[in-house]
Amino acid sequence: MGNGIAQVAAYPGGINVIMNDIAEQFVDKGFDTISKNLDRLVAKEKLTAAQKAEILGRIKKSTNLEDMKGADFVVEAAVEREDLKLNIFRKLDEFCKPDVVLATNTSSIPITRIAGATKRPDKVIGMHFMNPVPVMRLVEIIRGLATSQETFNLTESLTKQFGKVPVECNDFPGFISNRVLLPMINEAVYALFEGVGTPKAIDDIMVPCPGRPDRSRYMLCHHGRSPQRIRRLQVPALPTS
User: Fold this and answer.
1) Is the dihedral of CA 30, 7, 168, 95 positive or negative?
2) Is the preceding omega at residue 210 within 30 degrees of 0, hence cis?
3) pLDDT digit string (tens) for 117-176?
4) How many CB atoms neighbour CB 58 within 10 A?
């Protein structure tokens, strides 16, 4: 997901980006993904080859977190492990300039808890991008208890610059999207388990009808990049006695 955030920051955001990961192979893989995404836009004549080269030129590859000393705004997108994120934020707090906002792309870890790992809790905020980032327009902007209005305003403005739609929410478990989405996924599994419908029927219901898009269904069918998740589930038979 990090490469998707880097992509929308560079285009359409027009921002110079430092794309950091723990090893060069991961940074290169992310960069190649961005390049291929832009190739599709060139093929559709939405970009020229020269514009693609210019966009890629805005992205600097990095494997050293200290490179964030030069950043004016940071979006962390590490795996969803609280201990890892807290450690990253401690280091970012040390390396980054005092006025830099530190955003986290968490989908479930409390923003207030992450902010507590820093000496700048007023400048810590959640930016929950949806996957795949270049396609999905929604970004949840989550305030921690100490997040300042200035931090929120800057984050909201930057999200719009990325070509996304920011939606504000507060720091509660699951925020809004996952608090609504996960019970809906669970209900799909229960519907299969109870025999309400076949896997295909449940999938077909949850995929938008042609010409009648539905945001929640669209988000569900793209969750994890798979529109056919229920169909692969194996449900044990109910006991007969």
Assistant:
1) positive
2) no
3) 999 999 999 999 998 999 999 999 999 999 999 999 999 999 999 999 999 999 998 999
4) 15
Phi, psi dihedrals of residue 236, rounded to the nearest 5°: -65, 150
pTM of full prediction above 0.90: no
Q: Please, are residues 114 and 104 in contact by the beta-carbon 8 Å criterion?
A: yes
Per the DSSP assignment, residues forming a β-bridge with 140 are 128, 167
Spatial CB neighbours of 170, under 8 Å, sequence gap ≥ 6: 142, 143
Exposed/middle/buried for residue 22 (C-beta within 10 Å: 0-12, 13-18, 19+)? exposed
User: Mind telling me the catalytic residues?
Assistant: 107, 128, 140, 178
Furthest CA-CA distance within the chain:
70
Alpha-carbon gap, residue 238 to 146, rounded angstroms: 50
Q: Which are the contacts of 22, defined by CB distance < 8 A and separation ≥ 6?
A: 63
Residue the block writes with tokens 């996924």: 185
Contact 202, 191 (CB under 8 A): yes
